[in-house]
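Supplementary notes for students who missed Thursday's class. We covered one full example, reproduced here. Read the sequence, then the structure, then the short commentary at the end.
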Amino acid sequence: MTVEIEIIPAGRLPRLEDRPLEKRIGLIILATDHTTEVDFQRMVASDRLGVYVSRIHYANPVTAENLLRMQPSLTQGAALLLPDEALDAIVYSCTSASVVIGDRNIEAAIHAAKPRIPVVTPTAAAAKGLKALGARRISVLTPYTVETSRPMADYFSDLGFAIDRFTCLGLTDDREMARIAPEEILAFARQALAPQSDALFISCTAVRAAQVAARIESETGKPVVTSNLATAWSCLRLCGDDRARPELGQLMTKSYWEG
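Structure (token representation):
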């Protein structure tokens, strides 16, 4: 026997707020990415700041040709981030592709779908972070091959950084890069940091380096910037979050406008 349940209209519509959360960050990440979302949920997301993700196609291995193939997908990826609503920043989370495609080209592709929103790339964020830390001489650690690392060395050199030591691990699959054990990141970071360098940059949004940045700093006595740490820092500062969080690394104690 079916019992008819009375459904009662409330009598009025609920009051709506302008936004579910005060600030909104969009992430455009690779379909194969294991790390960026996790890092941003840990470092960025809060009751006031939401992180919203769009994934775009990517096929390994990590080569200049495969990285460039992502450029046409950037506009569509941006368009899928809360359509018709404003964001406070959009991150394209691929360091090596940011070098190959170019920061300005990435910004233009994203602005085609989401105009006037600040665009953050790991390369530009890392450079800004290194300058905020007062670093002029740097060491660099990447998980890539020599061929993929070369344009990145040129990128930082062209920005005026003196590169004392550049170390690459020779991997070609970003899923393997995500599986590098944290203790291995620590070990390679110690080897990669030249004594005369002001700071160490660890590249690649797939590598879980942000999780151990503060430990590397404690062991080496030098500031550490990683791809995801730099973009997280940039997004927090662009959203007006200026809290010092030294447990995440020295960069998280710096103003976005320093350097």
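Commentary. The mean pLDDT is 96. The longest strand covers residues 23-30. If anything here is unclear, bring it to office hours.
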